[in-house]
């Protein structure tokens, strides 16, 4: 190999080394930018969460928190409450044969507590009482909120 070829190869290698070094510097600059942008995004998200918390804690004109006002709106929603003595499964043939005076056997024993359902969700057990010639229910056992949530899952 001639001296000129060696020099040209060396110059070419030096140029490549310089270009690669420059590229590494650019990549580290990009990494710095990426880190800075990620930090800024995290700071903005944190500030937004603080602002939302502050809004929730502000009091309305009547002295209630926003959560209290929302709860007041829910308290006026009507629900269906029903009492269940018991259940049974029969065929359509037997259902069509029922007439006045027929007896349908239920899955509960006499004297067993009734189920109190709100929107078809069991919330309590109770016993039948008569008050001023009207039937009512005396609650004997109220299902805890934790147990009701377990049954929903």
UniProtKB/TrEMBL annotation:
GO terms for cellular component: bacterial-type flagellum basal body; plasma membrane. Its main location: membrane. SUPFAM superfamilies: Surface presentation of antigens (SPOA). GO terms for molecular function: cytoskeletal motor activity. This is Flagellar motor switch protein FliN. Belongs to the FliN/MopA/SpaO family. It comes from Methylophaga frappieri (strain ATCC BAA-2434 / DSM 25690 / JAM7). Keywords: Bacterial flagellum, Cell membrane, Cell projection, Chemotaxis, Cilium, Flagellar rotation, Flagellum, Membrane. It is found in: Cell membrane; Bacterial flagellum basal body. Residues 21-37 have a biased composition (Acidic residues). Residues 73-143 form the Flagellar motor switch protein FliN-like C-terminal domain. GO terms for biological process: bacterial-type flagellum-dependent cell motility; chemotaxis. Pfam families: FliMN_C. It is a peripheral membrane protein. FliN is one of three proteins (FliG, FliN, FliM) that form the rotor-mounted switch complex (C ring), located at the base of the basal body. This complex interacts with the CheY and CheZ chemotaxis proteins, in addition to contacting components of the motor that determine the direction of flagellar rotation.
């Amino acid at each position: 190999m001639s001296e000129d070829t060696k020099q040209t190869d060396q110059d070419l290698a030096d140029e490549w080394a310089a270009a690669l070094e420059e590229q590494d510097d650019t990549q580290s600059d990009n990494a710095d930018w990426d880190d800075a942008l990620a930090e800024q995004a995290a700071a903005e998200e944190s500030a937004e969460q603080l602002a939302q918390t502050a809004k929730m804690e502000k009091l309305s004109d009547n002295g209630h928190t926003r959560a209290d006002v929302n709860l007041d709106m829910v308290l006026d929603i009507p629900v269906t409450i029903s009492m269940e003595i018991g259940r049974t499964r029969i065929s359509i043939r037997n259902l069509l044969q029922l007439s006045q005076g027929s007896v349908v056997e239920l899955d509960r024993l006499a004297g067993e507590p009734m189920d109190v359902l709100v929107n078809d969700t069991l919330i309590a057990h109770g016993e039948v009482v008569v008050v001023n010639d009207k039937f009512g229910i005396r609650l004997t056992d109220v299902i805890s909120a934790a147990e009701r949530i377990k049954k929903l899952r």
